[in-house]
Amino acid sequence: MTIMGIDPGENIGYAILEGGRLRSHGVIQYTFEGLDLLLSLVDTADVVVMESFMLYPGKARQQSWSKFPTVEVIGIVKYHCRNKNIPVVMQQPAIKQAFPDEKLKFLDMYTRNKHSRDAVRHALYYQRFKKERRA
Fold this sequence. Notes:
This protein is α/β, with parallel strands linked by helices. 39% of the residues lie in helices and 24% in strands.
């Protein structure tokens, strides 16, 4: 099974696990060209696992004037996956705590970029528990 983890945003982290091994990872910029690359990678996945986004009242002021690229990336990926019949699982940001850096290093899945590391964490969480966690 090929699992693609995505950390959406202006810097889109991605990780592809295949057979329990980290096949590919990186960061893609939020541009049309970057989205084309992201969607071509999505097409190789059996399932896409993506971090969800919610605007909490305590962060609303901080997000003022944002164009919300995170929300746009989520929508684009969900729509693409719907058209390609690729399941999408949304996970709360808090699940990342299940795989701290030390555990990623032990599993030989630590990446240098925090966005790709978060994508690895989402893919690993799905691989281990195979369900959406609701916070």
